[in-house]
Automatic annotation (TrEMBL):
Belongs to the heat shock protein 90 family. Keywords: ATP-binding, Chaperone, Nucleotide-binding. The keyword ATP-binding applies. InterPro entries: HATPase_C_sf, Hsp90_fam, Ribosomal_Su5_D2-typ_SF. This is HSP90 family protein. It comes from the Bacteria.
Amino acid sequence: MSYSPDNIARIMTQNTPAPPAHTFQVDLRGLVDLLSQHLYASPRVFVRELLQNGVDAVTARRSLDPGCPDSIRFTADGAVLRVTDTGIGLTEDEVHRLLATIGRSSKRDGLDEARKEFLGQFGIGLLACFVVAETIRVVSRSARTPDATPVEWIARGDGSYTVRTLSDSDLAEATGGTEPGTTVFLEARRGCEHWFDGATVAELAADFGSLLPYDVVVGERRITGEPAPWATAHPGPAARQAALSAYCQDTFGFAPLDSIELDLPLVGVRGVAYVLPGQVSPAQRGGHRVHLKGMLLTDRADALLPDWAFFVRCVLDTDALRPTASREALYEDETLAVVRDALGARVREWLAELSVSAPDRLRRFLSVHHLGVKALALHDDEVLRLMLPWLPFETTDGELTLDELARRHDTVRYTRTVDEFRQVSAIAAAQGLAVVNGGYTYDADLVARLPEIRPQVAVAELDASAVTAHLDPVDPLDELALGPVLATARARLDPLGCDVVLRSFHPASLAALHLDDRAARAERARAEAEASADDLWSGILGALKESTPRSRLVLNHASPLVRRVGAIDDQELAGLAVEALYGQALLQARRPLRPVDQALVNRAFAGLLEWATPTPQAGLDQQDEPDRHDDEDDR
Ligand SMILES: Nc1ncnc2c1ncn2[C@@H]1O[C@H](COP(=O)(O)OP(=O)(O)OP(=O)(O)O)[C@@H](O)[C@H]1O
């Protein structure tokens, strides 16, 4: 038989009598442990939950009576915390229905629009107080039903509660007045007294609630009243910028490089994106402060902006985003995606504004955050078009923008690695070639895309052969004159996979150049791996063998040193000198030395030292020897 709804209904009516229905029992202590250990990051949230209930209660009363008082007052003495609000209040029936039923909330009743007014929604907030409180006592008078009797609810951490109605004088005695509203008393749990310290509560209330629209006071300290600087009128743009910066200093603890106002009513967001004054790693994201209708939701939001915008920290107030149940993070939904796009678009728009009206500010910004903008430009054609001309690059002509470089040269070349750039920069600069160091993150990819926005500029990747082509060939007679030393050099360096050529180039101070393109390096790495691999691997690696591209040592005929080396008759000494030139060229190119290179450089160095420090003459030797023996005898 299938368990279709019809069949289930038949079984239910056939098998009478129906089994008795039971109600779930809730172990309050277990639930509180769950909240405190798994939902909330810290007990501090109890202040936010109390604030939030007070704010929601005032909001609810305002919808009935727009002129009602809007006060929320905290007092704390280290043992008892008391919060009084002038909100909607509760009747006895509502106390049973709303306070004593976990998961029930009055804020889900009504139309969606009405619900949006409230901060709470889950019906668990008051429970958070048990994380620090032994008992929760709520004394309330309803504003909706003014003739309803005041009521007192006392709940204990063991899950029991009592309800009783109060006379007006009981109410006055408990709360100091008889007006509608609610007072919540918390009695500290043992070990949690520090959370009930007046200064601590004021600090927490200020952190969570400074932007709330109502009058919040803790002890003597007024928490609200100072509207957010972005929501205030200022005497002029400079005063506005100063106020925004001061807020950043107070809230985030840094003086921003710039402040980008975020006023996006279409997505329900208002606030500021502060540009960080120093470089940060693109991986280091988040730390945005998000307020929900004034209440601080989190100061660690990380998915609020697109990844590329890692150079800003935002503070914003929204009524559009949804909190998770812990109310410490944002719910990842379509609205958040829309807000993220809108915030990204705003930051991009700000960059565009700067490029037109404040190039100095843009340059200052780029000098710190070019990495973020480069990342952005790669993913966003509009930003590429807008920012590429402004971005600084390391080039053979110094630090320049691509536009500046393209103005001086017909072709812009780039290397894919920093190493390659180091190898060729001196020689390329001397040859008048324009080369960009594309070895830094994003740079090569960006330079390669330059023709998209500057079609008249030729862009080419540079490799070793492109540089050698720009080195002047040497007169055959001159080359012949250096024949012996070239032969020695080839014999010495051939086993290292390095060819030797003679060219003439500037600067003359550069005696030798080690050129080694990527293919040569990859092949060498493969050959080394093959040599040290077991049979199977060496077979596989051997099968990958390329046509052995080799590195090249280019000796500079224009260098007086090379000519002197060429004039050495002693072939052994000439060999050492060539090896030393090879080692120097490797170091100049900042190549890591392989063991064979190291051995060669050591040999060359030691050999040259030997040669430079001649052994003492035989006569002296004999004279010295007895003396040394004498010394030893003396000892
Ligand atoms: N100060 C108050 N004044 C009036 N009603 C209150 C007050 N505090 C709580 N309530 C009532 O108790 C209900 C439950 O409160 P609780 O804080 O547990 O959850 P919530 O605020 O509805 O939702 P959330 O869990 O999202 O905070 C509320 O929906 C509200 O009706």
